[in-house]
Amino acid sequence: MANPSRTAALHWTVVVPVVAAAALALTWGRALPVVAVVLVAVLLAGAVLAAVHHAEVVAHRVGEPFGSLVLAVAVTVIEVALIVTLMADGKPGSETLARDTVFAAVMITTNGIMGISLLVGALRHRVATFNPEGTGGMFATVTTITTLSLVLPTFTTTKPGPEFSPAQLAFAAVASLALYGLFVAMQTVRHRDYFLPLDEHGEVVEEHATPPTSKAAAVSLGLLLVSLVAVVGNAKAVSPAIEAGVEAAGFPLAVVGVVIALLVLAPETLAAVRAARRGRVQTSINLSLGSAMASIGLTIPAIAIASIWLTGPLVLGLGPTHMVLLALTVVTGTLTIVPGRATLLQGGVHIGLLAAFLFLAVSP
User: Fold this and answer.
1) Burial degree of 253 (CB within 10 A; 0-12, 13-18, 19+)
2) Which H or E element spans position 76?
3) Consecutive H or E run containing 172
4) Which GO terms describe its cellular component (predicted)?
5) What CATH code is assigned to 14-362?
6) Confidence class for position 323, pLDDT limits 50, 70, 90
């Protein structure tokens, strides 16, 4: 008879993150042949699936909304490290990498992840139900931080070009971090009930399944971090192949940031879709908007600190096309959130906005 502990230890959700991390250690900083790129890409996909599994284990243990924060913050911290690492390389186009990646993350989360979640929730339950009070607060915070960090640099005059002066960058960093901290306090302490899943009647959904043990949750937390490091690190490992493909296709360099954001946000996307299939659309929205907020609220302060030793300009200001897409996202998102209920139409509109962003990134 098989030993249960041995079987658990050899489960794919344990093996794949370890193997993916080992592949990262072996390939880091090296030029990879085509076969190695394909292998790393396969391990990258496996690490994404493993990250979703372990995030759900941790979320089940700590409950909502803390569970959503675990995945959002963990992914964002590693994403920040990836951005700073790539900017430190000083390659042409690195001065806009932070802006391109962060804005791509905002569009993917507020339109892609949220749109797919609403679509899945409405398909299974006719109407996707969520709490407009908590969701509205999240969306307002995302809008404010995005505008302060990515729109204002285009219009400030202290420094020429779409850049902040050092003092302006410091203000944006402190404001972003303060707003994110205030949001976390509201979500986890003072108004926690605003961020809990609702059923089709607007009642809070209680979790009836037996939660995992503290030991199992701790193991999953560790493996979640390993999986996320493997996801982001292997995404960086295959990024030269992505850059080469983008250049060969004649696409703008900003597409590289979009592809990296898509890879990094894959765990949150899958976790959000799985939550929506179970009727927990609020959890999906917590993941999408929480990830957008963490991406900006943590990235801008980190970039502000890193700019002390990074050489070259730091371009944060958006161009006219992206500002139009952001404005349309804000208006559409507001109309989606206010009723607290969404149909297939709202989900389809948000996915359409993401499609427009992706198309214009390739063909500006």
Assistant:
1) middle
2) helix 66-88
3) helix 166-185
4) plasma membrane
5) 1.20.1420.30
6) very high
pLDDT at 5: 44
Residue 117's SS3 state is helix
Please count the residues of the chain.
364
Cβ pair 267, 231 in contact under 8 A: yes
Sequence letter at residue 311: T
Dist. CA 104–CA 340, nearest whole Å? 26
CB 80 within 8 A of CB 327: no
Task: Quote the tokens at residue 302.
Answer: 């980190």
CA distance 329 to 337: 12
What are the CA-CA distances from residue 16 to residues 43, 101, 156, 216, 312 (Å)? 7, 27, 47, 17, 39
Burial class (CB in 10 A: 0-12, 13-18, 19+), 156: middle
Mean pLDDT of the chain: 82
Confidence of residue 181 (pLDDT cuts 50, 70, 90): confident
Intra-chain end-to-end CA distance of the chain, in Å: 61
Which band of pLDDT confidence, cut at 50, 70 and 90, is reported for residue 197? Answer: low
Contact predicate 228/74, CB 8 Å: yes
Hunting for tokens 């906005």 — which residue is that? 353
Q: Is the pLDDT of residue 35 over 80?
A: yes
SS3 content of the chain, % helix, strand, coil (to 5): 75, 0, 20
Beta bridge partners of 204: 198
| Model confidence band, residue 8 (pLDDT cutoffs 50, 70, 90) | very low
User: Could you state, in order of their start, the residue ranges of all structural domains in the chain?
Assistant: 14-362
| 242 within 8 A of 259, measured Cβ to Cβ | yes
Please answer whether residues 79 and 101 qualify as being in contact, where contact means their C-beta atoms are separated by less than 8 angstroms. yes
DSSP code string of 46-65: HHHHHHHHHHHHHHHHH-TT
Q: How far is CA 35 from CA 31, 42, 281, in A?
A: 12, 11, 40
